[in-house]
Structures are given as C-alpha cells and as structure tokens.
Design a protein that fits this description.
The protein contains six helices and four strands, in the order E-E-E-E-H-H-H-H-H-H. The chain is of the alpha+beta class.
Amino acid sequence: MSVATPPVDTAAPKPGDVLTHPVHGPVRIVNSCTRVVRGEDREYVDMEVIGDEMRISVPADSKDVIGLRALLEEKQIGELIEQLSQPIEPPEKKASWAHRIKTLTMQLQSGRLSDRIDVIRGILGDSGGAPSSLAERNLLKQAVGPLAAEIAIARKVTKDEAEALLHETAERAVAAGAPAAA
C-alpha cells in the first residue's frame, strides 16, 4: 500500500513555509541565499527542523531531489495508520542482526512514507513488540520521530500524543499477528 502525498510547489518555497523533509520531517523555510561554491554562485534554501535546534541547507536547484513535500493531510494520515495497523506476523526465519539493521537503515533513508511504516513494522515484528538492541531502538526512534512530528502539526496535537498513537497502533498490530498460544 502506497500513500499518495499531496503535491507541493517546491520550486519557490518562501520563508515561513512549512514543508516535510524526507529524513528530518517537518521543516520551516528560513531564507534563501546565494553562496559561492567552487567559484560559482548557487542558490540555497535554509531550513530549520521543527521541534529541533537543527538547521539544514540544500541547493535550491536540487530540493526536488531531496524530496521536500507538503505536510500530510488527514486522508494520508489515515492511510498510514491503516497500513501500520495491519497484523504484524513474526518472521518465519530471521536474517542476521547486522543484515536486518543494514536493510532497515537503507529502507529508512529512502524517505518514502511507506518505507518508514515498513521499518516500524519490521522492527516491532522482529522483536515481538519490544526491540532489545540499542540499534533497533534508535532506528525505531528515527522512523517514528519525524512522522510523529508531522502528524502532530497536521492534527494540532503534541508530538508525544502522535508518537503514542503510532506506538499503540503498531503494538496492536504485533499482538494481532502473534501466533495463538496452544
């Protein structure tokens, strides 16, 4: 299941616009500026990650490449929650820990919302709902955090409430996919 994201005119973001960065989540456009890079003038867009003190800057001519998009709308949030709520069955055969972490990390870096949901489902499904390794817990935070921040802005709730929604939905999906006790 793929979630359609709303179109956005990223060709001309203005200071104050709120968009979504595929890795960092919701960002506010701070300004545009020209920088000299390797002797050539290049336009850059400076952004601040909402809810974080981090600032990022991207070349204006490549912002479509990094995947800036409009914030999710309620319909897309509902589709994501539906995708997350599907029963998560434990894997038949687990791959090695290192291979799973590498695969999940690469999947998360794709920036696709469906991949972000799949990472959450994969970590919780492999661990039975409670990741035991620090790497899995960190990956889970990286998958949930930006999505929760975006849902919080869209639904006008706190980030903690949005994170709780995602975690509770995923935990019910793990419980629904667990084999029945004999």
